[in-house]
Amino acid sequence: MDFSGHLLWSYFADEILTHLPLSITVWYNTVMKKSLSKKILKYTVIFEPAEEGGYVVSVPALPGCISQGDTFEEATNMIKDAMRGYLVVLKQEKQEIPQEQSDAVVTQIAIQNPFTSL
């Protein structure tokens, strides 16, 4: 599913709203923007090179949501499909949809190996 049209509409709506009465602008900012933002969920995914080639992809916020692909593009498409399926099952089981903090920082940190001598 491609949401780029929604983002384009949001941009043009912001431009149009600058010329409309305040009440319509307030309505758009409180109702429409909130409903558009609910249509797009963002999650951090981790791509790890697979031993046999390609990538294994996981989503930390969705435990057990894992997929793979022979190329980065295929792995991306596969994990998106897995994420949609995962979220559909959560909704069917009336479980809460996980929300990820947008200010999360993902990085690698090096430490001295405690099992080797200096």
Keywords:
118 residues; mainly alpha; Double Stranded RNA Binding Domain; 2 domains; 44% helix; elongated
Largest sheet: 3 strands, antiparallel
What is the approximate shape?
Answer: elongated
CATH fold naming of the largest domain: Double Stranded RNA Binding Domain
Terminus-to-terminus distance: 53 Å
Mean pLDDT: 81
Task: Please give the oligomerization state of what you see.
Answer: single chain
Describe this structure in words.
- The chain has 118 residues and is mainly alpha-helical.
- The protein folds into 2 domains: 1-40; 42-98, Double Stranded RNA Binding Domain.
- It is built from 3 helices and 3 strands, in the order ααβββα.
- The protein has helices spanning 4-17, 22-38, 72-92; strands at residues 46-49, 55-58, 66-69.
- A hairpin with a 7-residue loop joins strand 2 (55-58) and strand 3.
- The longest helix has 21 residues, at 72-92.
- 8% of the residues are buried.
- The mean pLDDT is 81.
Sum this structure up briefly:
The chain is mainly alpha-helical.
